[in-house]
Write a structure and sequence with these properties.
Radius of gyration: 18 Å
Family: Belongs to the disease resistance NB-LRR family.
Strand content: 25-35%
Order of helices and strands: EEHHEHEEEEEEEEEE
Number of strands: 13
Domain WRKY: 7-108
Subcellular location: Nucleus
Shape: globular
Organism: Aegilops tauschii subsp. strangulata
Region (Disordered): 166-186
Largest sheet: 5 strands, antiparallel
Number of helices: 3
Distance between the termini: 29 Å
Oligomer: single chain
Structural class: mainly beta
Length: 234
DNA sequence: GTGATTTGACCTCG
DNA sequence: CGAGGTCAAATCAC
């Protein structure tokens, strides 16, 4: 998930409460107790993997100059009492200092909904499954373009990792209000698995155009199944 | 004081 | 042994 932030040091609120439990430097970060002369071998590898992941294809020297981030590790605050296993990792994008790459793992089982206090009664997050979505058997990456025609203003869209696919990652880039293009990275995801999306406002429909190295292109209309039922906050 | 964050040490796995 | 991830004591913010 790539999130544009209005703040300096943390992406926009995603509707859940998180507690930070760790942080790791990325190569080139301005760690108070280390500089470039103290870089270790695995830092360099970390960086190369990061570059590959974000398709930056930059040289090492360029990236040392540009990268300024660390990666923060967060877990749901309700883990102790509700066993919620949701976690996320946050790091600043090296291509745009106001963008953050956020990787979600697991799904919330705590049913927390902090957007319930929002000004609009319809600004509630809805968990929907893309029941009509045939996910390409992605071995590497699938390019996903999706368009959300919202009844209200679309505050944001999440694509969550499928529950049965441990280690899979899903990313998106948030664009304008109702049209968004994202990269959908789902290693190990099989055809039969279902991707989950969370909408902060309820869209009327979403069109998916999937492109992958395997499937040349797959256009589909997504049918939604509301998994959360009627809201408790109306 | 209480709760959250920081940060080096530690753990696990390939 | 290296790398990603996590722990937990110290520190910080309120």
């Amino acid at each position: 998930v790539r999130v544009r932030s209005m703040q300096d040091d943390y992406p926009a609120d995603d509707g859940y409460s998180w507690s930070k439990y760790g942080q790791k430097d990325i190569l080139g970060s301005k760690h108070p107790r280390s500089d470039l002369t103290h870089l270790r071998a695995h830092d360099i590898l970390n960086f190369q993997l990061l570059c590959h992941r974000i398709c930056a294809r930059q040289s090492l020297t360029q990236a040392i100059v540009k990268l300024n981030s660390h990666r923060g590790y967060y877990r749901c605050v309700h883990r102790p009492e509700k066993g919620c296993e949701a976690t996320k990792q946050v790091q600043r994008s090296d291509s745009d200092t106001q963008l953050f790459d956020v990787v979600y793992h697991g799904e919330h089982t705590c049913a927390e909904n902090v957007h319930s206090r929002g000004e609009s009664a319809r600004s509630l997050p809805h968990h929907v499954s893309v029941s009509a979505g045939v996910i390409p058997p992605a071995t590497s990456e699938s390019q996903v373009t999706y368009e959300a025609v919202s009844s209200g203003s679309t505050a944001g869209i999440h694509f969550m990792s499928p529950a049965t696919s441990a280690g899979s990652q899903v990313t998106y880039e948030s664009g304008s209000r109702s049209t968004t293009t994202g990269r959908f990275i789902s290693p190990g995801m099989s055809e039969s698995q279902v991707a989950y999306a969370e909408f902060w406002t309820w869209p009327d429909n979403v069109d998916f155009m999937l492109n992958s190295p395997i499937n040349e292109r797959l256009d589909l209309n997504a049918d939604f199944v509301d998994e959360t039922g009627p809201s408790d906050f109306d």
